[in-house]
Amino acid sequence: MTASYESWIGREEERTERISVHAVETMAATLDLESSPRLGDALPPGWQWMFFNPAVPRRGLGTDGHPRRGGFLPPIELPRRMWAGSRIRYLADLPVGSAATRKSRIQKVENKVGKRGSLWFVTVQHTTQCEGVDCIVEEQDIVYREATPPGAAMPAPARHDDVAQWGREVVPDTTLLFRYSALTFNGHRIHYDQAYARNEEGYPDLVVHGPLTATLLQGLALEHGGGRALASFEFRGVNPLFVSHPFRVEGREDEGGALALWARGPAGELAMSATASFR
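Now predict its structure.
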């Protein structure tokens, strides 16, 4: 019998945090940027994921490094949990150095059956405000799935044949993954514990964070946005990327001035798809 988590729909939590100048400087250094936003500047898109993360003690973590099931999110017992994608609206600038509040609400909890068994999808809406003004509204999709059996063969992903107008190569080394995990207080062991990633979750090596790839794609969008601020960004993870394996972030202009964006893995596979529009 399928468990019911309907009572979690509508559950809310609220966190307040200052958008620290130091945190912003360390993210700029992690991304190897020439300069960092200064006090009062707009926080770059994707950098909001450094903030409002729960500070769970080590004794409150599961074996995967995530907080144990229950609390704000429903106690879904499937062992693998991942951030599948988001739909984000950027409504107003979030200034560096400001005090901000993020209000979170569980919108949906759905069960589906995929090729590899049962899946649960949890959709959470995060609204980030500064001085009572909504700055960022995000719908985040979290997926829970069954464990991959040891030794199971991963299906070979198809090549992504979309033609890019522009793009650049990214070489994700262990330092990049370590720093990003630290900045986002992400304890998921697939990003820093190679033995765990291989032996427990069935990956060939350390996994590049999905939100890190999404942050790089948003940065690429700004580079080709003619100085405009993002109005919206939507992304979906398709295939994992791995440490020390170069990949590309690419894009092209779409109809109406929007951008189609993607991350292309080392074998030409689609790792993440995204779209962006501007204010």
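The chain is about 15% helix and 35% strand.
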